[in-house]
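Review the following:
>
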Amino acid sequence: MKQLMGVINLDHELDLLNELTYFRCGAAVPFAGRYRLIDFVMSNMMHAGVPDIALFVRRKYRSLLDHLGEGRPWDLDRKRGGLFILPPDWNDPSDVSTGELQHIHNNQDFFERGSAQYVVYSGSQHLSNVDFCEAYDYHLSQEADVTLIYTKVNQLRPEHHPCTRLDVGENGRVTDIHHERDHANIYMEMFIMKKKLFLQLVKQCIAHGESHFFRDAILKNRRRLNISGYEYKGYHAVINSLESYYRNSLDLLQPEKYNSLFREQPVHTKIKYEVPAKYLETADVTNSLVANGCQIGGTVDSSILFRGVQVKEGARIHNSIIMQKCIIEENVVLENVILDKDVVISRGRKLQGDVRKPFVVAKDTAI
């Protein structure tokens, strides 16, 4: 879809996953055994054929840069266009922009050089299989200034509380934007807008000392702009807290949830060549996701193991998420636990959290 250029804005995404975001931004947090949260929106844009994607980052993005590289898994390693990772630039002495608008202002050449006439704008906290081509066609059919992408959730959970809600009429027009917690129409922090209008609104916001595009350009002008709402009806999860990360991760152990996220269209990620998982004679694994490179000699139940995890004989893991290259020694017991990368749990230790509040161990820790 050469008419679309992508913007993934991570500037406003706070580090809300506690220990998991000590050393990385939220978009780089590992998910589902082999992915990162950023992979899902990147893959959605790839499947829509978006040729140019700008990633706005500000802090703790070393892990993200290592993961994305030149963008090859998403077909963005090109001689012209492709993936642009754009930290804000403070070298312009005349720059008065602040917040996320600073990214747009100081990287305006990205928009001006691109041939696409429309911008698809997103964050990374809403995991989905949105078809941006379909949303773009809907935007054109509505003759809207901006189309906001939303989903109607069946069950409101704590992670939905900070989300913006939309009132959408039968004609597809957004009639109100608000934060009523009992409202089921969740704005997914994605929108489509004509590039010319987008840059005009950015310029106006900066001139008035504003700093946040959605709040200051769209929300404050909701009575003046022609805003439509595109309803997305597929898999959706919001990852904006440790509890939501833990629950939505383990929900993927349900085949219908896993299939709805991964079977409709593939999710691309950084390629790592690992040997297949090895199960010793003493291994007992049930209802779990186990990535390549693992070696298991203990009991694993209802858990997710990332690449290269070692589970020694006699160890028992239940309802837990064990990230890359962790070592679980003999006779360790883990229940309702999240271990970040490269954690070592020594022989005979027992760590137990609660299903509503998992026990988390930060990266590179030895216990």
